Amino acid sequence: MWGKLLLLFAGLSGGICVAGGLFAFLTIVGVVTRLASGTKTAKNVVLYEDISLFGLVFGNIAYLFGNNMPIGTISLLIYGLGAGVFTGCLAAALAEIVNVIPVMVKRIKLKYGISAVMVAFALGKLAGSIYQLCFG
Questions:
Q1: d(Cα 78, Cα 97) in Å, to the nearest integer?
Q2: 110/10 Cα distance (integer angstroms)
Q3: Which end of the chain is least crowded, N or C, by CB within 10 Å?
Q4: Residue 10: CA atoms inside 13 Å, Cβ hemisphere, count?
């Protein structure tokens, strides 16, 4: 019995540490604040952070129980959409942090169509994700 309690404590402690580290990373990168400032809803940053934390907790629970969660098709679609938007925003925020886009634009001497290049990046990511989902 003590072994199971110790295992439970170690698992919970490890999960809390990993989730806290991921949430701290997202805060440092500034995904939430950049989205809030971009959509001109900066007054709701705390709400966005709370929703992000809830998503992390729900994602951990979903991973823990695997395919045994009876959440229904609609909930699965909402979760998939949210996970995709989150992944895309995180990738865009990381690219912005390391200045990938300005360096690329400068190197290829692109003057017009930067927004089209960004849309092409997003569509490429979408196509790759769908391909992996269908044929992965």
A1: 28
A2: 52
A3: N
A4: 6
